[in-house]
């Protein structure tokens, strides 16, 4: 395994200072992806900056405007067990419960899951359909961008050197949506999604006034199915399910890999989207 | 380089010098001689390396030793007291939840973490808590039964 310097700063400021020096640095959050990469010699850095002591990043709060704010270093287990999260949207708890196993969830972090930027990341689809934003902090500024603009490709995010993901913010209006995450895999646990789908619908008098659909594991990043969402506008969601399923198929670009073929994934996108909509109506 | 770390393991305070890239599982087994915790897959899938760290079941093969500085750790050696097996371990023996025994330390630690949190877990709750522990021998049903039995006794 490679050798590296190890630093465990106590404040975000110190962490940013550590990340701003010449050496190639990596961030250690939960380590459930990074340590595996280290052991497989797929990680390359001179300095490891552990975020274990950064209490500022470990808080879950409801802001005065009703937004839910989750610090990037909150473990998956702590998000799941948070009464604030459960009260805000039970679908977040359900989606994160599909990650790995209890031991993994106890140390993996929500920020780490997003920054690792696997197209199969289980936290991404539900956060996407709830209209989440990510807070990016550097020495010079803190900015908020929509999560849908955060991923650039497999394993790649917009984060530049010296920037960290500090929090995930889910807007208060997400409370008015009914949402669900569906994950298709070979096993019931400890599995990477073959296909995953999240749906969020705002329904009034049985008519859908707004729809969001996110697809995971069927592109080089988690994506929103924007065209399919438009098909659900101002109709009863149960009309036209077939057309909606077909449209979702058209918006994904799955690959064939060890877990499934592209064709199977495309078919399953349609199945999961229809199932998701049915479950919310 | 290296770093001195200090932590509590099975109620004993230990101080040890480790390299930055040493894995906690290896330090527990090789440096501390506590070999009951097993190295199965090495990448966080099989659960044979499960320990309890700061109250939570974690996979020690995915944790750098330096990250354990200041922590409280329990391994399977810490379940028995003065050589006497605890009720969970007795239940595993009595019900026959062990065949080759390789997964057993990890199973015991995941079960201990569960029983610390929930007094009488259902079979579903046990299966969920142990989803990260793989057994190739038993088919799991006696393991679940043993944990339920131990849960009722407590």
Key attributes of the depicted protein:
heterodimer; A: 281 residues; alpha+beta; 5-stranded antiparallel β-sheet; 4-stranded antiparallel β-sheet; 11 helices; 31% helix; B: 154 residues; 5-stranded mixed β-sheet; 5 helices; 5 strands; 33% helix; 16% strand
Q: How far is the first residue's CA from the last residue's CA of chain B?
A: 47 Å
Q: Can you give the mean pLDDT of chain B?
A: 97
Instruction: Compute the CA-based radius of gyration of chain A.
Output: 19 Å
N-to-C series of helices and strands of chain A: EHEHEEEHHHHHHEEEEEEEEEHHH
Strand arrangement, major sheet of chain A: 4-5-10-6-7
Beta fraction of the residues of chain A?
15-25%
Integer average pLDDT of chain A: 97
Query: How does the overall form of chain A come out from the CA principal axes?
Result: globular
How would you describe the overall organization of this protein?
The complex is a heterodimer of chains A (281) and B (154). Chain A is α+β, with helices and mostly antiparallel strands and 281 residues long. Chain A contains 11 helices and 14 strands. Chain A has helices spanning 12-19, 34-39, 76-81, 83-88, 90-96, 102-107, 110-116, 124-129, 226-231, 241-250, 262-280; strands spanning 5-7, 25-28, 47-50, 60-62, 68-71, 133-137, 142-146, 151-153, 156-157, 164-170, 178-184, 195-204, 207-216, 223-224. In chain A, strands 4-5-10-6-7 form a 5-stranded antiparallel beta sheet. In chain A, strands 11-12-13-14 form a 4-stranded antiparallel beta sheet. In chain A, a hairpin with a 2-residue loop joins β12 (195-204) and β13 (207-216). Chain A is globular, with a radius of gyration of 19 Å. The mean pLDDT of chain A is 97. In chain B, α2 (87-95) packs across α5 (141-153). The relative contact order of chain B is 0.16. The N and C termini of chain B lie far apart (47 Å). Chain B is built from 5 helices and 5 strands; from the N terminus they run ββαβββαααα. Chain A binds chain B through residues 1-6, 8, 28, 31-32, 35-36, 38-40, 48, 50, 52, 77, 100-104, 106-107, 188-190, and chain B through 1, 3, 19-21, 23, 42-45, 47, 50, 56-59, 61-64, 66-67, 69, 110, 113, 128-129, 131-133.
């Amino acid at each position: 395994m490679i050798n590296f310097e190890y630093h465990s700063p106590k404040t975000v400021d110190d962490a940013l200072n550590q990340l701003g020096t010449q050496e190639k640095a990596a961030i250690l959050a939960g380590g459930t992806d990074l340590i595996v990469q280290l052991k497989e010699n797929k990680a390359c850095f001179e300095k490891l900056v552990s975020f274990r002591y950064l209490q500022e990043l470990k808080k879950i709060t409801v802001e005065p405007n009703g937004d839910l704010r989750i610090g990037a270093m909150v473990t998956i287990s702590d998000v799941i067990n948070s009464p604030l999260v459960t009260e805000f949207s039970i679908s977040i708890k359900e989606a994160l419960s599909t990650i790995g196993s209890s031991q993994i969830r106890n140390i993996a972090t929500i920020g780490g899951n997003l920054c690792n930027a696997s197209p199969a990341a289980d936290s991404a689809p539900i956060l996407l359909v709830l209209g989440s934003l990510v807070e990016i902090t550097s020495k010079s500024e803190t900015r908020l961008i929509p999560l849908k603009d955060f991923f650039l490709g497999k394993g790649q995010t917009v984060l530049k050197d010296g920037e960290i993901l500090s929090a995930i913010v889910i807007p208060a209006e997400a409370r008015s949506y009914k949402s669900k995450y569906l994950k298709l895999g070979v096993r019931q646990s400890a599995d990477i999604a073959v296909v995953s789908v999240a749906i969020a619908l705002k329904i009034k008098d049985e008519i859908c006034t707004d729809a969001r659909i996110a697809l995971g594991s069927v592109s080089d990043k988690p994506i929103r199915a924007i065209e399919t969402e438009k098909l659900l506008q101002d109709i009863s969601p149960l009309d036209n399910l077939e057309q909606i399923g077909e449209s979702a198929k058209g918006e994904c670009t799955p690959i064939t890999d060890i877990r499934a073929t592209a064709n199977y994934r495309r078919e399953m996108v349609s199945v999961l989207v229809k199932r998701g909509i049915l479950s919310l109506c | 380089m290296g770093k001195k770390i200090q932590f509590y393991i099975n109620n004993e305070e230990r101080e040890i010098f480790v390299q930055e890239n040493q894995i906690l599982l290896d330090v527990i087994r090789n440096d501390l001689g506590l070999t009951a915790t097993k190295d199965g897959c090495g990448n966080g899938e099989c659960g044979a390396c499960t320990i309890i760290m700061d109250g939570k079941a974690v996979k020690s093969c995915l944790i750098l030793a330096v990250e354990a500085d200041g922590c409280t750790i329990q391994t399977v050696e810490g379940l028995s007291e003065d050589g006497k097996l605890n009720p969970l371990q007795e239940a595993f023996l009595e019900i026959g939840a062990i065949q080759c025994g390789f997964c057993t330390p990890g199973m015991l630690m995941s079960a201990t973490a569960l029983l610390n949190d929930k007094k009488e877990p259902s079979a579903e709750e046990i299966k969920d808590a142990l989803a990260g522990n793989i057994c190739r021998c038993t088919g799991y049903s006696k393991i679940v039964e043993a944990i339920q039995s131990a849960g009722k006794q407590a």
